[in-house]
Amino acid sequence: MNCRNDISQECPEPASELFAVSADDVKRMFSNFSAFSNSSSFENYSRFIGCLKECGGHERFSFNIFDVCRIFYHELQVCRLIGSLLDPEGDHGMGSFFLKRFLEMLFVDSPDDDISKEFWEKLCRDENLNHTSVELEFHTPEKRRIDILVNINGFYLPVEVKIFASDLFHQCWDYFSFCLRHNTETGRRIGREDYAAQTRIVYLTLKPGSPQKDSLSSSNGEKPNLRCISFSRDIYEWLSSAAGDLRSMYEAADLRTEFNDCRENGRHQNSYLSGSCN
Prior knowledge:
This protein is of the alpha/beta class. 48% of the residues lie in helices and 12% in strands.
């Protein structure tokens, strides 16, 4: 396909032949990001974007789905993306593929001193991962909202995402203590005392960092078990590893590449600060 660099000129082939979708289909794909989750939509999306870039032939015509939808500038949208990948029932159709690699990256391949590698290896078995649910904006009895709550066969793993918003008073401690109570009760019921000991909160930021002090401690000075990760290092490595394992499925690699391109784009630091949420 030879497309001219002048974007005012149409491609020599009809759009219907290029994309195998109608104008309404293209509009629907742009308006609903979840439409990209099944293989046919990802294929059409990739072909569509490939044609746009070839026709454009210029940096100003570069296309990034995260920039266009402003996904990366809003914590809730980012949580939806991460949560969807972690969910074995997500539209990606890969089962526990992404979840298993996420847990192995954080707790098996490079565990902290107080993390039991054996515990997490067992938790990463299919009989546990296949009974996993993921909930966004999970409301706790203390009227807190956990960004992403991963329930792995009864074991709660909270993920707090911070892009622009600041920590709230006792926020991380409240999330941790809620999950600790739940995991302690669950562990006692099934005879697993290590459920309580391995409870921790995953704290995700743009660059490597840690929560503010007044978010960590309880009223009596107790502190939660933390696993701090970042988009710039851990999430990129996670998606890179997944894309490598799924090399034949080019849409996964495209997703990883666009996510990283948007992450490195410094424009979000100035343009969309007002769009963040707690």
